[in-house]
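BUG-427 | component: ligand-complex export | severity: low

The export step for zinc ion jobs runs without errors, but we want the raw record kept on the ticket for reference. Input record follows.
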Amino acid sequence: MASQQARQFLDRMHEIVWQDMGLTPTPRSAEDGAEAATLINDLVDMRTGLVGPEALEALRAKLFRNEELLADMTVSKYENARTNQSLHKLADSVERAGRALGFPMPERPLLGTLPTGRVNVMTLLVPATREHLVLFESEFLGFAYLSAKAVAEVLPYRRSPEGGAAFSLEPGKVRERLEKYPQSAHRFGQLARAYLETGVPYNAPQYTQDPVRNTWAAMLCEAVELFALGHEYGHILKGHLGQQRPAARLGGPNLDEPEELAWSRQEEFQADAQGLSLSVAAMRSRGYDLPIGVLGADFYFTMMHVMERAISVLRHGHENGPDGDDAQRPSLLRRMVGRQSQNKPQGHKKSRAGDGTGDGAVTHPPSVLRRLMLRAVLARDNTPQIAAAIELGQNMEQVMEMLWFDLRPRLLDAHRAGVRPLERWQD
Ligand SMILES: [Zn+2]
């Protein structure tokens, strides 16, 4: 259970980060409550006549109680209760899988969201505590789902006699389909641009999807989300923090020093491997085979690699990141610290952890390198299933390159026309 201190810390982070973007966060409030109440009442009214009035009132009371529990579980007053509920469901799955594997699963970290400016998840320590705070980019879940949906849109599939469907990621077949339905390639690009230019993936043109494709998309999305959270549990499990680091690094006595955990490359690879076992096991317990679990992790990196290039092309007109004259963009947390210390005298200065990244430059190994390491770790188990999983990932990589090929010139045109990604996106 998250401490009061931790919740307040997250609220404060929301205030600072939103303010930094020139926005005021709106607390979850009366409006959310009113919307939920309408939904509940509609739901109950639909049953009028089907059950007696007492049962009806009992149902109404139960639904309202659930809604209260939901709001109560939500860590920050600026969080969306439903997103938070999704995060807790993911955590339930990851923790259950970890326990089944015999891992000493930690106490649940605080789960929250923040517009972090990176298409992923990060872990912080709540200052002056040993509590972990796992923050998903505010729209990460929406983006993961819509990406999977956009990919499902370009894959050919065949119905099997038993009523199932077999999807093909085989590049030649995907290319054939793209030639036949060129507009299906635009979905991913529209999504990427909506996310980078507005911060909200759902601002992309929405479309209804064939339910067979949609089922596949939902499965891939689950695998991606489980891996993303599994990776963060991986850091905690591996003791990348706390036990191995001196207490002085655990943050100061107040909010001046939120510290993003700057992992070393080695630690990232370890957390990836651990996250993979957790997410594959969680997917298995939901009835999916190993290859699709692995594909979730592999696709996560492939998707990040496309987004990293998309940010760069839209901002600079090329893939190579900031030019010499572009000042190094300080990380979100570094900016937060800078901002707060304008008002308050700084206590002691801390050095960053381990990997020589220097002051505030939190470097993550490139997603391509992480993907390569992941496949190398997998390849040690020389089984047909693993080989199939790796091949799926490699095919997906080629499919995403086709979508990138479609998107790149559009980004370039937009860049030339003066369009830029939101300032928060880091490259
Ligand atoms: Zn990490």
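Assignee comment: Attached the raw record above. The first helix runs from residue 4 to 20.
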